[in-house]
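Could someone model zinc ion with this protein?
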Amino acid sequence: MKNHTGTHALNFALRRVLGEADQRGSLVAPDRLRFDFTAKKAMTPDEINETEKIVQRMIEANYQVYARETPLGLAKEIQGLRAVFDETYPDPVRVLSIGEPVETLTGDPTGPWAVQYSVEFCGGTHLHRSSHIMSIALVTEEAIAKGIRRIVALTGPEALKAHRNAGLIEKEVGDLELKVKSGLEDGSLPFKTATKMIVETGDSLSNSLISQWRKETMRRTLNSLKKSVIDADRAHKTKLAQQAVERAKEIIAGLDTQKESVVVEEMAVGGNSKALDTALKQFKGQAPNTAAMFFSRDEDSGKVFCLCLVPKGLVSKGLQADQWVQTVIEVTGGKGGGTTTTAQASGPNVDQLPQALAAARTYANSKLQ
Ligand SMILES: [Zn+2]
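Reply:
Sure, complex below.
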């Protein structure tokens, strides 16, 4: 009965919000109600919210539900009454009104009654008062055919539970938003952790049975949060790459570029091995007699990255880039390769990085003698 009276209230609220929305079918189940209606496009979250609010206000108004057998001819004169298109009704027909006695309607059929209250032809059993619906939650709104949409709604304790759950998830999303924003600002929250938390909250949101408009609002918040993490990550990577280039320039400034030399350094660029490459390229033009190898550690993936560049002059002395990285792989594990002049490697032994740097220096210097 909650779902049946709720269906009438929903039908009324939909016309209020959408103007034209003709009923195309409905199903009243013990645990939910389903309502199909004509509409050209999907309802916006605001429209769904407004529809839900109108029904909630009808519930709070604690209207009496009136039913009365009425001659069909007289009943049909009631302006604005919601009848199902193409359906044939018995005579007399049972008029069901939420909030205003049927006699008032038939006594003044051109009055505003059916605009202000839910009035339908219905032979079914109903609640005595609208407050007995308790609550309503429109959990889905979707297309089922061209021009036909379907709303699934909960009433009674199920609706109260849905609203309680929505409140809990809203709190979770709000807390996450604060945590991610402050974590991005002071750099205390790794981007990967932030993304993982957002995805997890998004998953529990998707699996929740709550009002669609509340779900949609939270999804928007999560999407913009996800975007702010991506933006911050990108900005951070750009900054690290710039710092790596600056560091490379600094090293080059301290070199006697006429002499052959070896540079082996760690750069704080995380998993951005492209930044290592950019830093390395500085040597190609500005220190053409220097063999350079740069390392970085990526705590997220638990990997050490290594890139190197060897000028031809040093290759002929026996320092080959592809062999040089092999000395690194012996320490860091993993794999790598390349040509005699450029090579790269990556390995899992992050805590062996100092040893890998030392091994690479020793090997290269021994070739330079
Ligand atoms: Zn009915």
